[in-house]
Amino acid sequence: MTSINTVIIDAADPEAALRFYSDAFGLSTEVGARTGQSPTSGFRGFTLSLVVSQPSTVDSLVGSALEAGATELNPVAKSLWGYGGSVRAPDGTVCTVASSSKKDTDPATRRIDDLILQLGVTDVTASKKFYVEQGLVVANSFGGKYVQFEAGSGPVKLALYKRRGLAKVAGVSPEGSGSHRLTVGNDTADFTDPDGFVWEAARKDDRP
Question: Which SUPFAM superfamilies would you find in this protein's record (predicted)?
Fold first, then answer.
């Protein structure tokens, strides 16, 4: 079963990018960074989604992200599905933090229950088929709108959204072109998906 070991971000300053994810969210081995500024514009077609247990954790993580230099996109708020918000990291990556709960039931923590790489794709059904062929296992599927895969042995889960739908959740325009500035480090093989997202077998130099 294919698993995601790390999400590798192209950044002008990799050390600063890694420092941000550590200071903001306490992420270390889950996120890597490389020097790179490939031409891109607008929405890069993916988000990092942090799923947590309760609103106080959302507030804490979004607060530390803003203190670490992130830009607010969707202010934290209650909604029909729970409580959450989104920010843009200094390197340009969009991060969402959300809980299905609207009320705190336990003491405040900063624990992240799930880290999900959400890809905005052109055709969810076709991309689902592609990823199943690459060895990923479907956990949940909602027609041609959304698919989530099992994490396997890796710390990061994969989910597929329609690009426009993902942009709406993130609080950004769906328009964009150029490089995703993202490489998905996995434990299996090198390949590129139908939307141009690059996957790479894990290497020792994924972190500076």
Answer: Glyoxalase/Bleomycin resistance protein/Dihydroxybiphenyl dioxygenase (SSF54593)
